[in-house]
Predict the 3D structure of the following.
Amino acid sequence: MSAPLLASALQDAAAIALPGAGLASVDAARAAARAMLSTREHLVDARAEAWRYTSLRALEAQALPHARRGVAAIDTACLPVTHGARLVFVDGCFDAASSRLDGLPAGVSCKPLEALDARDWAAHPVLLQVASGADALAPLNLALASAGVLLEVADGVHVEAPLDVIYASSLGMPVAWHARSAIRLGKGARLTLREWHLGTGSGLATVQSHVRLDEDARLDLVQQQEAPAALSLLRRDVFNLAARAQLRLHMLELGAALSQHALVVELGGIEAQAELRQAVALAHRQHADLGLDLRHAVGRTRSDVRCRAVVTGRARAVLQGAITIAAGADGSDAALSTQNLLLSDQAEIDARPVMEIHADEVRAAHGASVGQLDSAMLFYLRARGLPEAAARALLTGAHCRAVLDDIAHEGLRAAAQQALESCIAALG
Amino acid sequence: MLKIDNLHVHVAGKEILKGLSLQVNAGEVHAIMGPNGAGKSTLGNVLTGREGYEVTAGSVQFDGRDLLTLAPEERAAAGVFMAFQYPVEIPGVNNTYFLRAALNAQRKARGEAELDSMQFLKRVREKLKVLQLPDALLHRGVNEGFSGGEKKRNEIFQMALLEPRLAILDETDSGLDIDALRQVSEGVNAQRSPQRAFIVITHYQRLLDHIRPDVVHVLAGGRIVASGGPELALKLEAEGYAGVPAESGA
Ligand SMILES: Nc1ncnc2c1ncn2[C@@H]1O[C@H](COP(=O)(O)OP(=O)(O)OP(=O)(O)O)[C@@H](O)[C@H]1O
Ligand SMILES: [Mg+2]
């Protein structure tokens, strides 16, 4: 007996017209994904290490219908300020009216999944591949992906204005939707991208992306997760970095009832570097889990991971996974720090990432801390007249904001800080 | 304005203040001197409402109100300010933002209109001039990476900005160079008025050359053991604390 969520997904997958339908390769891949899905009983293997802290049992017990085109609607005026081109998906459906794709510089191609032609699908096989494994999330996502983008930046092209991919949820009733993206930056290309989750819906969303950075490319990515409070959001991002490529990733985890983010970063070329920053602020019964799999595959690669979480109520923040420096990846440099604030007795933080080092002459630094607000600081602020709640919010904000300070684009930085600020003010 | 009567305070289970009495009237400047560990900072901490200081007996009245029942922010709004002996660094909390929030929180608590950013900046400019604090410090985190002297000057700058009715300066002079000592003293003197009072805690007579006290007290063993005019400070400077009456005195 498979879980109700999977059973309903299989029914929908056979009945709904999805992007690429009618193209032989797409149909075949989706059929294979459905076949895989039909053999699964559960969304994930609850015994697997990756799912040690996060249970999807309650989620998979719901038979969620797939979101249908036309039912969803969002008021464009509700969308946040964006600075360049943007693609808007509402409940997993591309919203052409809210999107703006004109004005992209030459050498940039950006299409919603539904606009891909046979050549696009063929040129980006990751869009149709499912990693092997026991997990039903990957076949589920492929079998039903209606949203997502194909984004390509040609060699040497620098895109100045940041690009936004917005996933909005809007429906009153719980639905499921799935997004799947492929992003490729050519040699020496540069792009600033924001993935923004927002809205008011509920149900389940899965979002899976493959990002390939060619030699000397640089991607500045802000993932601003302000998903609605009743949504479960399951993300998986895979980054492959060639020689000297740079990834700067800022993750803001503020929304969603349950947010699980599997993050795979492969430093596959010499001197590739990844800077990962995560700011988490959770309240009530929110649950956010970041599973990190960062691999230094070759020598002289660099990674720097900094996470700051603040949790209150009965919320739980999880950071797990590993940074691996492979045999032969000599001269690599890895740093990981996680600093966390627990604001209530019933909140929980599990920060247990590990470093596995199989190479020589590497530099690896690793630090984790969990604490409360500093009482001397709190007193100082209050002694100057700030009420206790305001003083707490100020200190809490400062704790998390530190990891957002190095967002390169000023507008994106301000928006991220603003979102964090209002979230923390609401923590109470 | 301030009336402390027979104050007994325990810290970490140990009695530190043992029946301290002190009266400070509006317009006065009181200096408190005394050996290390005598309880001078403890007095300041109790007056400003820091946690961990347990009052076991005695009372503190401020403008006729029982000060000890008020939260630290309520005391601040009532006009009590302490320039800390060791100002804490608060990385990530912007100095200017914090000061404006603090000032407006106080004004709001007193039922006064809040200052908008233009009015606030005007006030900041005026006060900065007196203390010769570099502008750049304002844009950093509170005390973040400030030198020892900069921290002390920042405390006095905050005092000038917040315009308290009672300011307690806890060893604001230690760690200051000669010019900074003068600037800080000017900052304090500029604030002197018939409505305001100061308690200046110091180890050194030289500060009192700049800020003339009305009364000098010696705090030793948890009490005021001697009080006198400015000449008492000179005497202490020359003779040390050996000459003042022991704990039993006062
Ligand atoms: N939080 C605390 N925990 C334990 N002991 C404390 C604490 N605060 C103060 N004390 C003790 O109380 C006594 C008085 O300390 P206080 O800081 O008031 O002295 P002080 O007169 O300001 O000295 P100094 O001139 O060195 O600044 C000291 O013995 C000190 O160790
Ligand atoms: Mg002291």
Summary: The mean pLDDT of chain B is 92. Residues 216 and 228 of chain B are 5 Å apart (CA to CA). The pocket of magnesium ion (ligand 2) is lined by residues B 40-41, 85, 170-171 (CB under 6 Å).
